[in-house]
């Protein structure tokens, strides 16, 4: 008889949450991997289960939302705090169906979402008291000691989870496995267990794991395996298999470095999508590297059905960009937009991530970056910096006295601009976001709001109005 495992994607506890291609891909990969070793899988998806509307563009949508009491440490934030996902009652009713499970595996995403993990594990302990709890995921990897102390799992997995989890289960459940059956490349891993999802309207695609870059604000190298690619042929087979099985057109790439070695990888993949006439709509919620977008790649993107294009711009300040080990320059950004528009996109079809809230980053720099993007006709995707444990920017924030070494992860929530004065930060954040929204509306209408000849004066004027 197979051992049954219950896998859980916990609730999101936050001020806001929206499903922008947000399936728990790591957990779904783990599910299919464990099936290969004769485990039966059950699954509870707290955010993406019953009540998730998915009524927005390209299969995205709203999670069910229940306003709850804010943690005391967040009382100063003038926003409602909520639990996103199914009700506790529905969760419990599903949980007790799996009393025959041999173990419970819980994932974790953002470090400041740990209250959702905490509540899930609390309820598992109450209703399935004899089941070992194994915790993995991003939060568990970045803050293992906090997770051990706060969540108190029986076992904690850090980093890539498949092999480590298999070893833990083999020991705990006395179910040995043949090491000869372990995959020796990414092509040997099974596709994610998307059949566990309730009526998905989009699916995720990861063509490689990890990232060769080492940006100062990113913790990817602590979370993922060293940068490793799948073969283009393996990726195309997955596209075909999922399209035939689920009849879904929308796929979001989850790579952190999709365009690396583009001639041997993404260009081959897009060419084969075009040749196969698969009617796909492709999306890139993770930022794309502008310096790799030349005429050929832009043309392939347009012809293969790329619909959502988000470029990693971060800042127009070249000195800060060098310090962050960024992948773009102002010139490369301008050229990427030119190639994409010549391929057939409107500038307003494109988005660019702009970072706000870096340690010692002046408001003028953020405003300059927003105006630079608007002058290209591109929409701004404002990304609020969150100090991620283990990154260079986190260490800088601690060393400069901006945050304590042992800061509660709740205070690193990107939506509250954590590196500023708590009494003024939220209002400052709101004003900058409103400014970006106004310029995005102008971009949709093909308008540039600021004459390049008056660029410096405009930056100073807007920054003064926002900070006054």
TrEMBL record:
Radical SAM core domain: residues covered: 197-427
Entry cofactors: [4Fe-4S] cluster
Transmembrane segments: none
UniProt domain B12-binding: residue ranges: 9-179
Keyword Glycosyltransferase: no
Gene Ontology molecular functions: 4 iron, 4 sulfur cluster binding; catalytic activity; cobalamin binding; metal ion binding
One Gene Ontology cellular component: cytosol
Source domain of life: Bacteria
Annotated InterPro entries: BchE-like, Cobalamin-bd, Cobalamin-bd_sf, Elp3/MiaA/NifB-like_rSAM, Methyltransferase_Class_B, rSAM, rSAM_horseshoe, rSAM_sf
Keywords, in A-Z order: Iron, Iron-sulfur, Metal-binding, S-adenosyl-L-methionine
PANTHER family: ANAEROBIC MAGNESIUM-PROTOPORPHYRIN IX MONOMETHYL ESTER CYCLASE-RELATED (PTHR43409), PUTATIVE-RELATED (PTHR43409:SF15)
Protein known as: Radical SAM protein
Protein source organism: Caldithrix abyssi
